[in-house]
Design brief:
alpha/beta, 466 residues, nine-stranded mixed beta sheet, globular, binds the ligand C[C@@H](N)C(=O)N[C@H](C)C(=O)O, Udp-n-acetylmuramoylalanyl-d-glutamate--2,6- Diaminopimelate Ligase, Chain: A, domain 1, ATP-binding, binds ligand LIQMQMZN, 38% helix, binds adenosine-5'-triphosphate, 23% strand, 3 domains, 22 strands, UDP-N-acetylmuramoyl-L-alanine:D-glutamate ligase, six-stranded mixed beta sheet
Length: 466
């Protein structure tokens, strides 16, 4: 329960109408606010939440606003609490910071270019074995989603696992100044959001903004560029995980990949345990050992870590392997940048080399937000695809057309993911393996939807089977 005294202390706001003094939680959305919650009216790209204060007050217990002119008299007369502040986003930040300061457990901040959501979920899966974990839900990793997640804290919360996203310098610093993490996890440094950062060095600087806040930093020792920055900027306890580099705190041996499972031996000092993951790819071993190292650092033993890792089912749209009508789809449509694209291609190659598939098809959408690197990174991708056994490459979007033009082989350039789905529907055959990936804005999930709807594709597959 949040009480009005704490809210006023945290936000410095003033009470305009005093109704309920206790609230079950915070909501920023009148469409989903629940009975007893306090609405915070935020201004967004499409709407100003103040326009929905009345709706919110009808269902909720009160509101924090910065502008009273939207509050109708009949709602005021209804005795719903109304708190006036100068800046509602800042009020959300201050409230989250206030609640965090009262919290005595560990707060784990997960940053890095790739794998944050998956690593956050893996850490939570392990810690939940014996603790009540509060985690950022889904991908809510920005200056709205992360503080909002903190406000879900209650007296039963033992530990927090918070994903922190960034697409420009200063984001991680801002998020850390609210969450005050004591343990940091940096998954890796890669080519992401270069439009906002300009260079890989600036990406590293941005992710390392977590360093001054934490006492322990869990880092990927195989990422030598990251490690160079960590050693320069961090003076606390460094906990390392690695597949290749020897001597890391958490390492792995005897990796076995298949399209059903990923097995390996997880080693911590002189102890080891076998792990059988339901998720796929070498990059997911990194995410798993990042989670293992974090859990180890807060006192979890290897059996608990095994249980948490093995029960994890994966996150939607992140390298899901789906089989439909004899075709294997690698559904990696959540996002894309040059580093994660390379990882996905490595996995495609590994699967092709297993000899189980007839043909490989890559359906790839633009990698967005790369600024000046956009064209050159797409051209490089086309060249890389040319030297692996990809039968057909369907490129979606204007940037991918540069990749298609560099591709030596059967390349098709289309404008939208719907068009790509139709093309794919025309060519897929039973026994094919298809990688589908692109930036969020490219909506590559529509490729799979279009194939599923395509009668032609279904017909072709049935014809092939008989
Ligand atoms: C605020 C909010 O959550 N908006 C989401 C909402 O947008 P919508 O169009 O409905 O409204 P507005 O934002 O314009 O509305 C303002 C407020 O009005 C409320 N409201 C509106 C209508 C109504 O009838 N009643 C109302 O009460 C409304 O609820 C608002 O409070 O829906 C969209 C579609 O689902 C969402 O896209 C939109 O989400 C925005 C973008 C958001 O910031 N959401 C956060 C909760 C969040 O964490 N979102 C993550 C995205 C994270 C991300 O992209 N991370 C980047 C790094 C980012 C770094 C930082 N510099 C940055 O720029 O943010 C990364 O690479 O990881 C997510 O959704 O996944
Ligand atoms: N450790 C990793 N190294 C490289 N690529 C990865 C790694 N983990 C995941 N990926 C790729 O990144 C995609 C998104 O994964 P995830 O959502 O876990 O990352 P994220 O960092 O949270 O992304 P975002 O920045 O959009 O929040 C996956 O589908 C996969 O292609
Ligand atoms: C979805 C957002 N978190 C992200 O990763 N954006 C990049 C540009 C992408 O979608 O590839």
């Amino acid at each position: 329960m949040l009480n009005i005294g704490d809210i006023i202390k945290a936000t410095g706001g003033s009470i305009v109408v005093k109704g309920d003094a206790e609230f079950t939680g915070i909501s920023i959305d009148s469409r989903t606010i629940k009975d007893g919650e306090l609405f915070i009216a935020l201004k967004g790209d499409r709407f100003d939440g103040h326009n929905f204060t009345m709706d919110a007050l009808k269902s909720g217990a009160g509101a924090i606003v910065s502008n009273l002119q939207f509050i109708a008299q009949d709602v005021v007369a209804n005795n719903r609490t109304i708190i006036l502040v100068d800046n509602t986003l800042l009020a959300l930040h201050n409230l989250a910071r206030y609640m965090r300061k009262k919290f005595k457990g560990h707060v784990i901040g997960v940053v890095g270019s790739n794998g944050k959501t998956t690593t956050k979920e893996l850490i939570s899966s392990i810690l939940s074995i014996r603790l009540n974990v509060l985690k950022t839900s889904g991908n809510l990793n920005n200056h709205i989603g992360m503080p909002l997640s903190i406000t879900r804290m209650n007296k039963n919360t033992h530990i927090m696992v918070l994903e922190m996203g960034t697409n420009m310098p200063g984001d991680v610093d801002e998020l850390c100044s609210i969450a005050l993490p004591d343990i940091g996890v940096i998954t890796n440094i890669g080519y992401e959001h270069l439009q906002g950062f300009g260079s890989l060095h600036k990406v590293r600087d941005a992710e390392l903004e977590i360093a001054p806040f934490v006492k322990k930093l869990v880092v990927n020792a195989d990422d030598l560029f990251l490690m160079e920055g960590v050693v320069k900027k961090f003076k606390g306890e460094i906990i390392t995980f690695a597949i290749d580099v020897e001597g890391a705190d958490i390492t792995v041996r005897d990796i076995v990949f298949s399209d059903e499972y990923t097995k390996f031996l997880l080693c911590a000092k002189s102890e080891y345990i076998d792990i059988n993951l339901k998720i796929h790819g070498r990059f997911n071993i990194y995410n798993s050992i990042a989670a293992a190292a974090t859990a180890y650092a807060v006192g979890f033993n290897l059996q608990e870590i095994k249980n948490g890792l093995e029960s994890f089912e994966g996150v939607n749209m992140r390298f899901e392997i789906k089989k439909a009508r004899g075709v294997t789809f690698l559904n990696d449509v959540y996002n894309a940048n040059p580093s994660s694209m390379q990882e996905a291609i490595n996995e495609l190659v590994r699967l092709i080399n297993s000899g189980k598939y007839r043909r490989a098809i890559a359906v790839l959408g633009d990698m967005l937000e790369l600024g000046d690197y956009g064209v050159s990174e797409h051209k490089k991708l086309g060249q890389r695809l040319s030297v692996i056994p990809v039968d057909t490459f369907i490129g979606v979007g204007p940037l991918m057309s540069f990749a298609v033009s560099e591709f030596v082989g059967k390349g098709i350039s289309v404008d939208t993911s719907d068009d790509a789905g139709i093309k794919l529907g025309e060519i897929i055959q039973e026994g094919d393996i298809v990688l589908i990936k692109g930036s969020r804005g490219m909506r590559m999930e529509r490729v799979i939807a279009a194939v599923e709807d395509s009668e032609e594709a279904i017909g072709l597959l049935q014809q092939n089977r008989s």
